[in-house]
Design a protein that fits this description.
- The protein is mostly helical.
- Helices cover 78% and strands 1% of the residues.
- It is built from 16 helices and 2 strands.
- A two-stranded antiparallel sheet has the order 1-2.
- Helix 2 packs antiparallel against helix 14.
- The radius of gyration is 21 Å and the shape is globular.
Length: 425
């Protein structure tokens, strides 16, 4: 077992709660700006490939795969990185590196050196930086929030990135229409620079004393985090249900936009309204989760919200063309993402308060690896299955897997939790 690192506390941290609150505010502000920038290039990269380089569907799919595969490769090592190095350093350095990377694209456009291999490389590198940055930002929340207010801090974190994602997507679309895909990356670079400045203002984060930390090989530390999660009576069933949910979501969501546009015929405007409702639901779910937990208990909120998330995948599966069904899809999209963010903020708070402090970052990254890391592979599987069967069949399989994950959760000790730290009825 890794020895818990000795901590040096800065003089700024000792000034008390005011410094911590300011640091948390800078963290949330920086993460919102960072996530907005990531959403801009998520829109601009495929648009640049199609409009400037005339990429075919296979090349666009490969570009998306290149952006997502780092989550599978980097998630577990990221837990070791944020354990070994100051979180503020990881946050600022990844932001600065991302600013340099996205600046390459407008420079290459000016020099007429744009190519698909260059876009694949940049997409993969940005994926690596994003995985490291998100690991550090999520680890910083429990380091800045006291246990009594951790759930509220996680809720605010989720709300900020939900709003930032929607805003960044809209901004990316606007920039594409006004200044073009290549120039949009200049604004993207600016967002990362501002986020890096915010990271330098997070003064209350503690710094591990690397001279007194028992250093082990990275592979052993990764294995330690996985073993701890697999042996823990609460984390084990939670992570198993999260893994199954990731698989189900990959099957049901990968082809959702295609299904809504072709079979349900919602049109581009209808799809935009559904997505906007989902974003509003995500914000609502994140902000109301702490209140629901205080009233009904941790386990009940997780179990019921998890079930609601699975059930809300059914309306898109059975929908038909028409304004009535569009209204149903708007409501279900809102409810789906409200349930998703309610589950996300609550179960993440349970992880952070249940795991041993010296293993918290590695436990967090084990969870992300099991959920988001499988998404690229599940997306490829969904496409392959759709060619063998049809889109509705693949989505129905995804709904069945999601219902299985909800059943697993109800059968586990998690539904009996009364507190974030693992207390049960």
């Amino acid at each position: 077992m890794t020895v818990a690192p000795q901590i040096r506390t800065s003089s700024r941290e000792r000034v008390g709660g005011r410094a911590v609150r300011r640091s948390l505010a800078f963290l949330l502000t920086g993460e919102g700006i960072n996530y907005a920038g990531s959403s801009v290039h998520a829109v601009a990269l495929p648009a640049l490939a199609v409009l400037s380089l005339k990429a075919d569907p296979g090349q666009v799919a490969l570009l998306a795969f290149a952006a997502k595969i780092p989550a599978l490769v980097v998630a577990l090592p990221a837990g070791v990185v944020v354990d070994r190095y100051p979180l503020r350093t990881v946050l600022s350095s990844t932001d600065l590196a991302a600013a340099v990377l996205v600046s390459v694209i407008p420079a290459a456009a000016v020099l007429d050196r744009l190519s698909m291999p260059l876009l694949y490389t940049i997409a993969s590198a940005l994926g690596v930086l994003s995985a490291l940055h998100m690991a550090a930002s999520m680890a910083a929340v429990p380091a800045l929030a006291d246990p009594a207010h951790l759930h509220q801090a996680n809720a605010r974190f989720t709300a900020v990135i939900t709003v930032a994602g929607t805003t960044g997507t809209a901004l990316g679309t606007l920039l594409l229409a006004t200044i073009g895909a290549a120039r949009a990356f200049a604004a993207d670079a600016l967002s990362y620079l501002v986020s890096a400045w915010c990271a330098t203002r997070i003064r209350a984060l503690r710094t591990p004393d690397r001279t007194q930390t028992a250093r082990q090989p990275a592979v052993r530390e990764i294995r330690e985090g996985i073993a701890y999660s697999a042996a823990h009576p609460i984390l084990r069933p939670l992570f198993l249900a999260l893994t199954v949910t990731g698989l189900g979501t990959g099957l049901s969501a990968t082809l959702l936009a295609y299904h809504l546009l072709t079979s349900v015929q919602v049109g581009a405007t209808g799809l935009g309204v559904i997505m906007a409702a989902g974003s509003l639901g995500g914000l609502s779910g994140a902000l109301t989760a702490p209140r629901l937990v205080r009233r009904y208990g941790t386990g009940r909120v997780i179990a019921w919200a998890w079930t609601a998330y699975a059930l809300m995948q059914i309306p898109p599966l059975v929908a038909r063309p028409g304004p009535l069904w569009l209204a149903v899809l708007v409501v279900s999209g809102y409810a789906q993402w409200a349930a998703a963010t309610c589950v996300g903020t609550t179960q993440r708070s349970v992880q952070q308060q249940t795991a041993a402090p010296e293993l918290r970052a590695r436990v967090q990254q084990t969870s992300l690896w099991l959920t988001t890391g499988t998404q690229p592979l599940t997306a490829l599987a969904a496409g392959a299955l759709a060619t063998l069967t049809n889109v509705r069949t693949v989505m129905a399989a995804g709904v069945a897997v999601l219902m299985l994950s909800a059943w697993m959760l109800w059968r586990s000790p998690i539904r009996r939790l009364t507190s974030m730290s693992g207390g049960a009825r």
